[in-house]
């Protein structure tokens, strides 16, 4: 499971926050720990490698990602390999998401109820008056074309038995003024397992999360890499998503952008660019309590409450 912020979380850019000081939250003992390696080649930030630890109980998920930016141009800019860290707690009993911002020394707290509230997210992501009308007048946005295919292929991936699922998403926007079309093609090759003992607690947590967030909980599971590009409700693809159930063992995601100038004319020109490739691989699994130090908040950090 690659932890990526859901589209709903990414959309919240205009938050009203209240800064208060509270004691640091302590993690309860985890019932399962998954460790993943992630390798990414991004057109904007270059090559990255990361280690992601994800600990589960039936009522909480703790995620810690340590990333190294190893691309040559990033090293030229900073003079060395730079590193970052992201830590997030999903706490069902508190009905909250806690995200640590290490550079600012605070912890952003978002209510799960708000994340699942489509109207609240839409309000926070609303464009200025007149902009929406201008966009509709100039652009035609085609409905996204999403497809999941259970392949029936079984294999042993890094020592874990898994089944392969292929997912594709095609997005297209037509610019009426320039007579140009912009397309994004996302593919994800996902390998999942339902046989691992840790799948039990994984399934229990996400079942409980779905009871609070509804279908939006799917954005945090195995298909998170592709669903981050799906805007709006997941309900139209509900039945397809159910085919991807299982504990993620491996994921290979590719994002390609295609721009077509002068659509339908003899002067038509197609430009393609690979935007991103990312591979996630399960390295180890563990039952019982995880090392709490990997997920604890620094005691001096302050809580910032999203309203």
Order of helices and strands: HEEEEHEEEHHHEEEEHHHEEE
- The whole-number mean of residue pLDDT values reads 85
In percent, how helical is the residue content? 10-25%
Strand segment count: 14
Q: Main sheet?
A: 14 strands, mixed
Poorly predicted spans: 1-25
Count structural domains. Answer: 1
Structural class: alpha+beta
Distance between the termini: 28 Å
**Helix count?**
8
Shape, principal axes of CA atoms: globular
Into which percentage range does the β-strand content fall?
over 45%
What does this molecule look like?
This protein has one domain (7-306). Helix content is 18%, strand content 47%. It has helices at 7-11, 72-78, 112-115, 118-124, 131-138, 199-213, 224-227, 238-241, and strands spanning 17-20, 32-42, 46-57, 60-69, 82-91, 96-101, 106-111, 139-141, 145-157, 160-175, 180-193, 247-261, 269-287, 302-306. Strands 1, 2, 3, 4, 5, 6, 7, 8, 9, 10, 11, 12, 13 and 14 form a 14-stranded mixed beta sheet that branches. Strand 6 and strand 7 form a beta hairpin. It is globular, with a radius of gyration of 20 Å. It starts with 6 loop residues before the first helix and ends with a strand.
């Amino acid at each position: 499971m690659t932890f990526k912020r859901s589209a709903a979380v990414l959309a919240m850019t205009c938050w009203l926050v209240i800064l208060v000081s509270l004691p640091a939250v302590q993690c309860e003992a985890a019932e399962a720990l998954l460790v993943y390696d992630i390798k990414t080649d991004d057109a904007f930030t270059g090559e990255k490698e990361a280690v992601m630890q994800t600990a589960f109980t039936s009522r909480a998920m703790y995620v810690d990602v340590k990333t190294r930016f190893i691309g040559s141009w990033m090293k030229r800019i900073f003079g060395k390999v730079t590193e970052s860290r992201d830590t997030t707690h999903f706490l069902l009993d508190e009905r909250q998401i806690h995200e640590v911002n290490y550079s600012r020394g605070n912890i952003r707290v978002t209510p799960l109820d708000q994340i699942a509230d489509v109207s609240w997210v839409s309000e926070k992501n609303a464009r200025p008056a007149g902009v929406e009308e201008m966009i509709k007048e100039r652009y035609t946005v085609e409905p996204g074309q999403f497809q999941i295919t259970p392949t029936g292929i079984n294999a042993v991936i890094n020592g874990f038995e898994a089944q392969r699922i292929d997912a594709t998403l095609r997005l297209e926007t037509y610019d009426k003024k320039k007579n140009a079309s912009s397309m994004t093609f996302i593919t994800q090759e996902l390998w999942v397992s339902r046989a691992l003992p840790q799948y039990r607690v994984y399934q229990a947590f996400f079942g409980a999360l779905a009871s609070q967030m509804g279908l939006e909980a799917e954005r945090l599971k195995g298909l998170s890499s592709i669903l981050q590009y799906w805007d709006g409700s997941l309900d139209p693809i509900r039945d397809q998503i159910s085919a991807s159930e299982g504990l993620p063992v491996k994921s290979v995601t590719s994002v390609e952008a295609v721009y077509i100038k002068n659509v339908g004319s003899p002067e038509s020109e197609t430009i393609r660019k690979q935007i991103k490739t990312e591979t996630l691989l399960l390295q180890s699994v563990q039952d019982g309590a995880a090392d709490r130090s990997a997920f604890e908040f620094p005691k001096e950090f302050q809580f910032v409450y999203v309203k």
